[in-house]
Amino acid sequence: MSDEVEAVAKDIVDSAIKVHTALGPGLLESAYQRCHAHELRKRGRKVFTEVILPIVYDGEEIDAGYRIDMIVDDLVIIENKTVDAILPIHQAQLLTYLKLKNCHLGFLLNWNVQLMKNGIRRVVYNLTGPSPYPAKIFPQ
């Protein structure tokens, strides 16, 4: 990953921990998303929320209802959750968004945890080198 992407990733994690420390678990996903976007913008990051992500089929862009929760600096995708546990379908969703948007790094943030560090999952797509993640979780 480039230094620029890693700097964005650091701000995402740091600001998520700050927001969660202030708010704690138990709120709606949308509340965390708005506060997290606000915190990232305070740090000078460009943040877009609820970004329409069309699929391309037969040479046409089709709005199939996909919405990316957050894109930071046009480099990193964030998918917010408030669930009991992150499931494989959540990872698959983020991997699909990374593929369709041609991004290499994303974060699954589960705000429904006691400690935010336990709710952060970094997801890498299409690395040029070997993945640091086990193949059974993140197929190459």
- How many DSSP helices? 3
Helix content: 25-40%
Tell me how many strands there are. Answer: 7
Kindly report the oligomeric state of this protein: single chain
Q: Mean of the pLDDT scores?
A: 90
Structural class: alpha+beta
Q: SSE order, as H and E? A: HHEEEEEHEE
Shape estimate: globular
List unreliable stretches of 5+ residues.
131-140
**Major sheet characteristics:** 5 strands, mixed
Strand order of the largest sheet: 1-4-5-6-7
Report on this model:
- Mean pLDDT is 90; it is low at 131-140.
- The chain has 140 residues and is of the alpha+beta class.
- Helix content is 35%, strand content 25%.
- Helix 1 packs across helix 2.
- The chain has one domain (3-124).
Question: Any chance you could write out the topology, listing elements then pairs?
Answer:
Elements: H1 3-23, H2 29-42, E1 47-52, E2 55-57, E3 60-62, E4 67-72, E5 76-81, H3 88-101, E6 105-110, E7 120-124
